[in-house]
Amino acid sequence: MNPTHLSSDRASLHPLKPQLSKYRILQLVGQGQFGKVFCATERKTEQLVALKELTHQRLTTHKFLQELWSLLTLQHPNIVTCRALEQTPTARYFVMDYCEGSTLRELLERQNSLTLAEGLHLMRCILAGLDCAHRQSIVHCDLKPENILLTLKNGEWFARLSDFGIARRFSQFQSQRPRSDAMEAIGAIAYTAPEGFYGLYSPSADLYSMGILLFEILLGDRPFSGNPTQLMWAHLNQRLSLPPWMPAALRHIIAKALEKLPARRYKTATTMAQAIAQALQDPQVQSLSTRLLPLGEHPPTAEAPTLTLTPTQTSRIESSPTKDFALTATAEVLYTASDRHLQIQPADNPQTKQLNFPEAIAAILPGAKNCTIATQHHIYAISPEADQCQPLLTLNPPFHAAIDPQNRWLAVARPRHLAFYSLTHQAPLKPDAPTHACALPAPRLPQILFLDPRHLLAIWTDPHPKKQRTLLQVYARRGMRVASVQLQLKLDRLMLAGQPYTLFGIAHHPLPAAWRIQLFPLQVTRIPLSTPPACWSAVPGGIILAHAGEILCLDEEGNPLGSWQGVPEPVALAAGFQGGTLTPGDSMKLAIATRTDAGGAALHYFEVNVKKNP
Predict the structure, then answer these.
(1) What is the mean pLDDT of residues 30-58?
(2) Greatest Cα pair distance in the chain
(3) pTM, 2 dp
């Protein structure tokens, strides 16, 4: 199922809302042979679930009960769990675990998505779930990347088997003669074992499918190709061809799993998983463990864009050598903060204005017209034309603040408390008289940011160094919590991307990566990085990251647009002032602050151009 090809028209979801009163339907996320899959939240717990629709017209009662029996029988971490069953006059719904990483197919289609060690780890996850099914006398019959869902566990991908719609019990395959109903167990022909074409199926046939899957994960393609007739002939007759440069331990596993005769394959899923674990100890495999998949030479991409950065000017920043810097930009203004000083540089005016505050600046919150500045005790609303600063709100620390994109609402988070203030009236505001307020679930201060004028996101990252957890909670402006998600992933400061309800964050462990998080419906995408960035920013059209000597640009989907070498020791960056995007053919202004030898800072300006090669 591919969510990108589905309509996001929420009007089609309205008839379901009164019929499924226990769940809040968020969005249609997939569509298969027998029905649709929706992302929803359970009203009582606010947890995300997947609702798998099975319509009466497309799925007979016999097949429905067959899949329900399989799901209720199989309880394993590597198998998607069925939590409950819901019925309406027109359809039945499995309430299932929601997997935010989408399918293995989508992961394999992304560039630089997996290392060899990660790919083999996913194979062991799938085999563990498959072993549980086989021990319960169930043959999956339809193993393929589309039926393997991904979630996060301790910051890494974790695979779970799904879609037991054509699974069969062993007793249905005991006959050695072909049976018409057994032929229905054939899933995707590209992954079907030779005996499956004769209506004979067994656990060994699932292991043959796993051999095809391992070949595809490691080499980027399946061993056999062609139309259905050609594929059937290849499975029955064509000899397997493996590249000689592949480690012998991996060649042996694939060759054994893809034996034409079932008796020559691995006896159990556990045996195959043990062979993969043993291969991971092989010195040749270990030397390739961090190699990006697929293995082999990666052909150059003719359509890869070219990134060019043209320096335009450089200026110094007045600051103490021990202080940090912050850069924030809107389409009209570049704001530079250092210690107690704020520099305002309008796009249409080369003259820079400086404002001085009685306390060090803690955060810059840009809005559509004005800029909001947070210090230790005060919040200020600053316009580009301002010559002085007057407090908008005075608070006792600690607190975090956010302003909505239209500069109409201010949100303030304090320990266990969230308040919303209307900015349509004259300042100063009264801290004990917010327009709306609610309690927060944890004493630690969350990062907060407005998703749109009506919804705020609160973000808590687990402070324990070994715990990979980030809690995301969405609040309506009136203070009602409407959604709650916990990711087994520790993220640096999240920033809004250009697309609605989409964010970018940075993870340092277990591997450096940028993460794209789409909230509705929840979907996470990892973009591996060679090293964690020193500074980064979400910008119109994508994200820009910088570390010592290199600037990297990614589009809104996380695909690399290009990199540029040249800026040493960056400490802050901002882009998008004077307009522009990262779209190929367009350009934008980029400002980067760097440390100087004297301990101060310099501000470098560039024009960024992304050109699509012919």
Answers:
(1) 79
(2) 89
(3) 0.89
